[in-house]
Write a structure and sequence with these properties.
Blueprint: E1 3-5, E2 10-13, E3 16-18, H1 39-45, H2 55-58, H3 83-100, H4 118-130, E4 149-159, E5 162-170, E6 175-184, E7 189-196
Antiparallel strand pairs: 1-2, 2-3, 4-5, 5-6, 6-7
Amino acid sequence: MIRRSPQQRRTVTRGGYYPPIRVRPAPSFETPFAHEDGADEWYREAGGQLSFDFAALTRRAEPIREIPMAPPPPAEPRPVASPDARRAAGRFTRTCLEILNGYRPVAHVRPLAKPATAHTLIDQLLDALRRMPVAPTVPRRQQQPELVRLRRLRISEPTPGVVEAAAALGTDARTWAMAFRLEHTSTRWLGTVLQVL
């Protein structure tokens, strides 16, 4: 319940007394006319403010000089592998997959590697076998499908006689990356570097 007390000239509510609300006129933000009161004072205060440069509206804009940009460098041609290099990389990848799936022993990579680097390739495959979900002990040709499958293979031949390849290998739960390098001898392609990550 709200009522006004005539003695105290306050608004009385259930919560207590509050002072009356006074409505004041809003200040004017427009420029007064010259004949109105206080115009002289307003114009005196506004005299030091920045003025608009109306001449800039009629001035002709200077043309924007475009800085010539150098043409982009020509893209280097991607080293495309020859058909013979592609076949060698595919054969090496299939052999590694068969070793990782337990269809071949690790020693079967030795004929595909250079004699000086064969032990490092075997060590890489043995380390990868230890990281497999189930260590393949017996061939699973009849028991179950391959554990490791080839998802993608990228092959390049940066110089004639040298192949660099990257393969994505995967199981249902995990993915590995395999990178290898093959070099062409007088008779065949042999692996020199192998990494399984």
